[in-house]
Every structure is written in C-alpha cells, then in structure tokens.
Design a protein that fits this description.
6 helices, transmembrane helix, DoxX-like_oxidoreductase
C-alpha cells in the first residue's frame, strides 16, 4: 500500500475512532449505562440493558481498535450493526438531517466503516504490520 493510502487509512481510522470513543464514553460514564438503558427502553429497543452495554462497549472499545488498526473487518461489522440499530430505532422517524435528529451521522459513519473495514491498514495499523511480518517470515 502506498504512503498516501497509508496516511488516508490512518486519518479515517483516527477520526472514526475518536467519534466512537466519545459516544461510547458518553454511554459508559457521562450518562451512564442506567440512563442509556432507560433511553433504549423508551425507544423500544429489545433487551435494553444488553443493548446499552453492547453499544457502549462496541463504540468505546471499537473506537480504540479502529485507531490501532486491529481486527478491522470484525470491528467495522460490529460498529455497522450498532449504527444500523441506531438508524432504525433512534433516527429514522426524524428524517435525514442530523440537526433534526435524523440518520445523517450514523449513515455517514457506516460509509466510513465500510471503507476502513475493507481497506488494508498498511503500515499504519496493527493488522497491516502483523500481515507484513508474517509475509516476510515465509
């Protein structure tokens, strides 16, 4: 992977990672799991406590893993599932625009996750580093 692609992958992963870390932190500490569960219950999300823990941990931990470039396809899929849930349970009835509580942001995050999930991390991510080390040993 070329230097510009390595850099682009890193920038995308860091920006997405920071966004998800902040959202996960909000669910874990700012609002707390109990408040997140209550909000999810209000939205009629099935198993609201499990969903609150899932979204909080996947967003916070997944954000860290995105920045590090670890397990990119898996992390991206877990976060995409989280964002699909957010779209259909919290945002779809509000239309498209984020300012109106719509699904614009989670949809944009899904696009970014598809891009980084399918791209190689190159030298800027742990996945790329470990893959290149394995190739060099063979």
């Amino acid at each position: 992977m070329g230097t510009s692609r390595n850099f682009a992958s890193l920038v995308a992963r860091v920006i997405l990672g920071v966004i998800f870390i902040f959202h996960g932190w909000q669910k874990l500490h700012t609002n707390g799991i109990d408040a997140t569960e209550a909000y999810f219950k209000m939205l009629d999300i099935p198993l609201p406590k499990a969903a609150a823990w899932y979204s909080a941990l996947v967003e916070f931990g997944g954000g860290i893993l995105l920045i590090l470039g670890v397990l990119m396809p898996l992390v991206s899929l877990l976060l995409i599932a989280d964002m699909i849930g957010a779209i259909f349970y919290a945002h779809i009835d509000n239309g498209f625009w984020n300012a109106d509580g719509g699904y614009e942001l989670p949809l944009a995050l899904i696009a970014g996750l598809v891009a980084v999930g399918l791209a190689e991390t190159g030298r800027t991510g742990a996945d790329g580093y470990l893959t290149s080390r394995r190739r060099n040993r063979v």
